[in-house]
Amino acid sequence: MKSIAVKELMVPLSEYVRVDVDDTLSDCFRALEEDRERKGLAGHAHRDALVFGNGGEFKGKVTMLDVFMALEPNYKRLFGTAKGENSLSADYVAKLYKDYDLWTEPLENLCRDGAEIRVGEIMHHCARTEFMDEGDDLGKALHRFVMGVHQPIIVRRGEEVTGVLRLGDVFEKIRELTLACKP
Hints:
This protein has helices at 6-9, 25-39, 64-71, 74-79, 90-99, 107-114, 119-122, 138-146, 167-180; strands at 11-12, 18-20, 49-52, 58-62, 131-133, 153-157, 160-165. It is built from 9 helices and 7 strands. The chain starts with 5 loop residues before the first helix and ends with a helix. It has a single domain (6-180), classed as CBS-domain. The protein is of the alpha/beta class.
């Protein structure tokens, strides 16, 4: 069987939601909603957006996790500027939840307050491991997903961002290939 290149499964940049670093979280959510309506998508619409600077340069991404962490300001106290990506025990997580008084404010209040947060303040700045080349093998991408890379993976040709590789799309390809195998 021939290998599958990342490019074969990526969502092209032209089809992905893009926002500006100066946009608000409300602007970002509107852009996601408009994209869903334009494409007639129900359940599997984009849930994150790529962030670009005023000059059109790629800056980062805003994911579901980034939004949740921005809505609960106490995570800044908990993590400082670094986000926890280590595996944590249930007892430790419960202690942090209580000690940092997380999610005690009604969600309606948090969402109202969070609506005007600037995307540039909450976006995720991508690490080197969050970028892949269009020609990279899908196995390399799978390894990064399993090892916990901040999703989605940004795909490039040289230094130019050309698309996004989502875990759900990779899963669907694996499902398709598995079902095509003769038992």
